[in-house]
Amino acid sequence: MSRPEYEAPADVFYNALEAKKYARSSRMQAIQTQLTDRALELLLLPVAAEGSGETQPSLLLDLGFGSGISGARLAEKGHFVVGVDISKCMLDEAVDAGNTEENADAILGDLGSPLRFRPGVFDGAISISALQWLCSAIRTESHIASEAAASNAGNGEEDEDMDSCEAEDGRQNRSSSLKSQLGESEQASMGDDASASSDGAMSSDNDSDSPTSSRTLVAPSQIGDAKTNAPYKRLRCLFQWLFASLKTGGRAVLQFYPDSPQQVEMVTSAALRSGFGGGIVVDYPNSTKAKKYFLVLWVGGSHLPGQQQQLQQLQAAALGADGPSQIESTRRERQKQPRRGKSSKATVSRREWIEKKKERQRLQGKKVRHQSKYTGRKRKDKF
């Protein structure tokens, strides 16, 4: 079974039909809720009161809001959520389900383009099953708009009739390639998206202040075309504006499904080069199906007083009220050797020495002869 991020861009793949199936799947709801609870645990948010176990209400950013399952879970815990997603159909499902009514707002935007939030406004950020979409080789609408502008500039001296014919041919080619990528089963539901993509690219660029300026990914390109897709550049763009949006000491927990160790290294490198500290946390590493990858990042060092206090609280909760506050450790002591000399030598018989040596060899797993009445006796001198 192929991965969905390699079949089509997120806003194309999650059309009205797929978004409805995803939002109404009880299995997806259970998995999303479980992953959100785990991500909230890794955020290490400040505790409201000692012994209560509840965290203080915080302003959190949900990357890849989707149908609002994770955002609704965060709102249940008393937090305020701002969600960002590129699929309009998924956000429509979130609104229909009522996941944006209480302590949650949703923004239609592309995570791989700059989103200009106020610096240091968010206490933390989470992302559930969204980061791998930025690692796939896809073309955004801004790329298509720039190519169209360059093509029009080069052909400015041609007749308008020729330009209209070429534009019509380009529309038909993009529509046919989009349908062939998505398959025959999704042609009916993708008719509106294909016709919308053929109307032309967006007029605004990626640097617009509006988070919806380059929100749509209109057509997939061939996988592996690094010049037009640049997944690493999109990841760097995400982590740069995310680093600026988090407050000092804030954390970001991003759960994703990598397809190779090289992809994990690429994501980690993009995050660390953007100023974050942190690394990968793997739950159930020995399991094939239950293994989960979490990219845990923080702004600032772990030497912050708040971080140290949160770590102590987490250790106390894990060990219990009556448990020790630290792990006991002792040095490995070597057996004391007696001083060499006639006066310090212990009187050990030959038989006792041989018995101790055989016992030590048995503990080492070696094959040792059994004890007998002749053990330790001196052999007779040969004639």
Question: Would you give an account of this structure?
Answer:
- The longest helix has 23 residues.
- Helix 4 links the parallel strand 1 and strand 2.
- Helices cover 40% and strands 13% of the residues.
- Helix 3 packs across helix 4 and helix 10 packs across helix 11.
- It has 383 residues and is an alpha/beta fold.
- It has a domain of 248 residues: Rossmann fold, CATH 3.40.50.
- Strands 3-2-1-4-5-7-6 form a seven-stranded mixed beta sheet, with helices on both faces.
- GO terms for molecular function: rRNA (guanine) methyltransferase activity.
- Keywords: Methyltransferase, S-adenosyl-L-methionine, Transferase.
- This is Methyltransferase.
Q: In a nutshell, what does this entry contain?
A:
By secondary structure, the chain is of the alpha/beta class. Helix content is 40%, strand content 13%.
What class do helices, strands and sheet pairing give? alpha/beta
Which fold does the CATH topology of the domain at 4-138 and 207-319 refer to? Rossmann fold
CATH superfamily of the domain at 4-138 and 207-319: Vaccinia Virus protein VP39
As laid out across the biggest beta sheet, the strand order is 3-2-1-4-5-7-6
Instruction: Report low-confidence residues grouped into runs of 5 or more.
Output: 157-168, 173-228
Give the integer mean of the pLDDT values.
75
> What share of the residues lie within helices?
25-40%
Q: Number of DSSP strands? A: 7
Q: Approximately how much beta-strand content do the residues carry?
A: 5-15%
CATH A-level architecture of the domain at 4-138 and 207-319: 3-Layer(aba) Sandwich
| Termini Cα gap | 84 Å
Order of helices and strands: HHHEHEHEEHHHHHEHEEHH
The whole-angstrom Rg is: 32 Å
- Largest sheet data: 7 strands, mixed
State the name of the first-level CATH class of the domain at 4-138 and 207-319.
Alpha Beta
The global form is elongated
Number of helices: 13
